[in-house]
Amino acid sequence: MQLYKNASGNSGVTHYELHPSSITLRFRNGDIYLYDQQHPGPYHVARMQTLARRGQGLSTYVSQYVRHDYADKLTADAA
Q1: CA 63, 29, 46 angle in degrees (round to 5)?
Q2: If 0-12 CB within 10 Å is exposed, 13-18 middle and 19+ buried, where does residue 33 land?
Q3: Are 37 and 70 in contact (CB under 8 A)?
Q4: 45: which DSSP letter?
Q5: What residues have CB less than 8 Å from 54, skipping those under 6 apart?
Q6: Which of 42, 6, 3 lies closest to 22 in space, CA to CA?
Q7: 70 and 40 Cβ atoms separated by less than 8 Å
Q8: Is the dihedral of CA 33, 51, 60, 15 positive or negative?
Q9: Which residues, at least 6 apart from 7, have a Cβ–Cβ distance to it below 8 Å?
Q10: What pTM did the predictor assign?
Q11: How many CA atoms lie within 13 A of 61 on its CB side?
Q12: Average of pLDDT values for 17-29?
């Protein structure tokens, strides 16, 4: 996983991994979630990928638009 830039300095996201049709995020508390074409859907995944590359706004976006609509909660070994 890549370190999230965290331009604001207070993001809940620490790392991310981009895939062609999904994104995996690791949060400060250690939780890892997969977001894909089914949950939360292609529009949100594309937006999250853009924000991850930018290094700003990802945690806020997840909180405001995605919340608990993730495809899977992963263990550290699976990520």
Answers
A1: 40
A2: buried
A3: no
A4: H
A5: 5, 7
A6: 42
A7: yes
A8: positive
A9: 54, 55, 56
A10: 0.91
A11: 19
A12: 97
